Amino acid sequence: MPEPPHRRRAHTRTRDLERYADLFAERTQVMRSSAMRDLMAVTARPEVISLAGGLPDTSTFPPQTFAAQMTRIAQESAAEALQYGPTEGFEETVDCILQVMGAEGMLPDHEDVIVTTGGQQAIDLVCKTLVDPGDVVICEAPTYPGAVPVFCSYQADVVQIECDADGMRIDELEDVLAKLAAEGRRPKFVYSVPSFQNPAGVTMSMGRRQRLVELARQHEILVVEDSPYGLLRFSGEPLPPLYQLDGGDFVIYIGTLSKILSPGIRLGWAVAPPPVMAKIVLGKQASDLCTSTLTQYFVREYFAEGRWRNYIASLVDIYRRRRDTMLAALRDHFPAEATWTEPEGGMFIWATLPEYIDTSDLLARALRDDVAFVPGQAAYVDERGQSSMRLNFSGVDEREIEEGVRRIGKVVAEQMELYGAVTGEHPVQAQRQMSAGKKGEADQPDGGDVLPFRKSGEGSQ
Ligand SMILES: Cc1ncc(COP(=O)(O)O)c(C=O)c1O
Description:
The chain is of the alpha/beta class. It has 17 helices and 14 strands. Pyridoxal-5'-phosphate is lined by residues 54, 118-120, 144, 146, 193, 198, 226, 228, 256, 258, 263, 268.
């Protein structure tokens, strides 16, 4: 049915940017769209294999459990569950959060915790509380792509510190802190995802964790530890969170149930020293008054059932297999020049291709073959990351992981051939290895070291 004429006119007018341009706040000029959000629209097509999202596998959550819990809430607490709640969150929700933090050895005070609408809101509230335009915020390179739009919208001056296989290069951080001190600039905080980092999959070593916490004390700067994946470890020994090492003086901790229960419930939290927390609470009041009461009731029911640890254990088993499948597929289908990380947990692998390949261009080509990944540039505020990509292994099954990586490998091979044809520089070794079919680890460059982040020298932070 054709649209009525008055609707058509309104549409044309409302799409006229000039009409509103003068009204926009200055900060909108530096606001960036989240690369993953943009991609979600494209990857929603059922034929697309998306290795782009940061999606946990929610199909593993038993529907009967969900139905039983929601029914109980409806029958026993409907009026309360449908009502507003306190800005800080319900005490019972905080009890659940303390159980989760306790599983990683942390024991914060009840009053130091605020329940937020996902971990994402906690990042936003920390910035709202601490960052004025032009303030320095330090983070990893690459950093969580979803934090980049937040830092940008608060007009932070973002300084990114390189990562290697042991996480953020703390020696580089020390240099940056010294340089900033010499300029009389005190960074507002250092943002880090120390365990199974999004996007690189790397984990900060014990030595670096200790040194980072020492530096925070020495320079009296805050560290924001964002840790959605800490309990999703597949191999290796657990490492203490920064919050535990510091005791909560200089570390603000951000957690979430998104990756260990459900992102749809939008339940995260922050733990901060009381004076900082008081401001965060005011910030949250202004943002959304309180986190969904219904969600908090669900979490309460779920934890009361006592099977939350078993559910995480089942996710760990599934994701370990998927990680292994992705690593094998990368060995089979990516060229010899490519490198990638081998995460001990979490949901992501970071792969780096020859530098003449731009992964944003590659994505456009890959989408035509119905496969998606996140181009590396989304994890930087500058031009870095152009030849890298983030690959997610938690959101699709093993068959799709293998097929998705195969399709990307095919597109990479085409790009490399094209480069060779245009420049005359044939990437000989790569082509030989690609056509040799299946490759084992021994075929990797540098004797099997497949990490794009080379280990730095002994004792280096
Ligand atoms: C490092 C990191 N922080 C925060 C978030 C956002 O989590 P939530 O879904 O709880 O808002 C994510 C989600 O991918 C993440 O990887």
